[in-house]
Specification:
CATH superfamily of the largest domain: Aldolase class I
Strand content: 15-25%
CATH class of the largest domain: Alpha Beta
Strand order of the largest sheet: 1-2-5-6-7-8-9-10
Structural class: alpha/beta
CATH architecture of the largest domain: Alpha-Beta Barrel
CATH topology of the largest domain: TIM Barrel
Shape: globular
Low-confidence stretches: 238-246
Radius of gyration: 18 Å
Bound molecules: iron/sulfur cluster
Number of helices: 11
């Protein structure tokens, strides 16, 4: 199995090579808005998931890809900090390349000092915080019973104090869940104390785990950004022009679609390929039963067929 996906043109990180540290949908949360689907293994137990295999694949691939990358991003289809080998993997990447290392995390395990220590050599950490109300936290993020909002906030503040790299906070805003003025006013107060380098707003622009997770319109999301003030930006759509793609085979396409559903437009932008070329490729994969397409918000999103992704 490949642990690497891309490189893709990421909205935030430029041309990014994704590294999936965790088995499919092994997570501490089961968010309503998860693009990867429902969490099948809800856990807080950290384990060493295939650390040597991941490092071996990075060692083989990074020297070839280095010139084409803006970032190496630890992320994927679950919570990367659940991998006990995360710090070792970050250290290995740092010996292989000077490309910055970013970690996308839901932030739930940052209350543990060893998790924060493991992140120290990363260049950029992008944790999430969708609400500062316990009931909304339980409803929206559906965390493992071991987790509390208090612990989540503690971990974010501790990492902010200790971590020397960039700290970008991501907030997913959903209609009717965490978009009320009362919710946002509480969040604003916590953000002011946390003082992240950036705050990035997202909404459910792709197919999500639960139908109740509905997106805000672009205007509504902009209004939330204005309300929160400061260094807040909307990241809910691609904002980078396509760049020339590197040659990706069917397996690389499938590796991307196994991690998140994407439209022809998204794939064309992410891979820097003409939409017609992407359509031909998707048609071939669909005919072979390797991907499926579902309509969401008036667009067709393609995802890996469960039997092809080993889910
Ligand atoms: S959105 Fe992230 S944190 Fe939430 S369930 Fe999905 S993988 Fe886990």
């Amino acid at each position: 199995m490949s642990f690497l996906f891309g490189p893709v043109n990421s909205r935030r990180l430029g041309r990014s090579l994704g590294v999936d540290l965790i088995p499919h949908k092994t997570c501490t949360f089961d968010c309503l808005y998860c693009e990867v689907g429902a969490t099948t293994h809800l856990t807080t137990e950290r384990r060493a998931y295939q650390v040597e295999d991941i490092i071996r694949e990075l060692t083989e691939s990074l020297p070839v890809l280095e010139g084409a990358l803006d970032a190496v991003t630890l992320a994927g289809s679950g919570e990367p900090t659940l991998n006990l080998g995360m710090g070792e993997i970050i250290a290995a990447v740092k010996t292989l390349t000077s490309v910055p290392v970013a970690v996308l995390t839901n932030g739930s395990l940052l209350y543990q000092p060893e998790v924060r220590r493991g992140l120290q050599r990363a260049d950029l950490v992008l944790p999430s915080l969708d609400t500062v109300k316990e009931d909304t936290f339980r409803r929206l993020n559906r965390p493992h019973p071991n987790l509390t909002l208090e612990g989540h906030l503690f971990g974010l503040f501790a990492l902010r104090r200790e971590f020397l790299g960039q700290f970008w906070l991501e907030i997913m805003v959903l209609k009717g869940h965490n978009d009320s003025e009362a919710e946002l006013a509480l969040l604003k107060e916590v953000i002011a104390r946390l003082a992240p380098d950036r705050v990035q707003l997202n909404t459910a622009v792709r197919p999500v785990a639960e139908k109740s997770a509905q997106p805000l319109s672009p205007e509504e999301l902009e209004a939330v950004a204005v309300f929160l003030g400061g260094r807040v930006e909307v990241i809910a759509s691609f904002d980078r022009p396509a760049q020339p793609g590197v040659g990706l085979g069917d397996q690389e396409f499938l590796a991307i679609l196994a991690r998140r559903p994407m439209t022809v437009r998204h794939l064309a932008q992410a891979l820097g390929l003409p939409p017609q070329q992407v359509e031909v490729r998707l048609g071939r994969l669909r005919d072979r039963g390797l991907i499926v397409g579902d309509r969401y918000q008036n667009e067709v999103f393609y995802r890996c067929h469960p039997s092809a992704s080993g889910q």
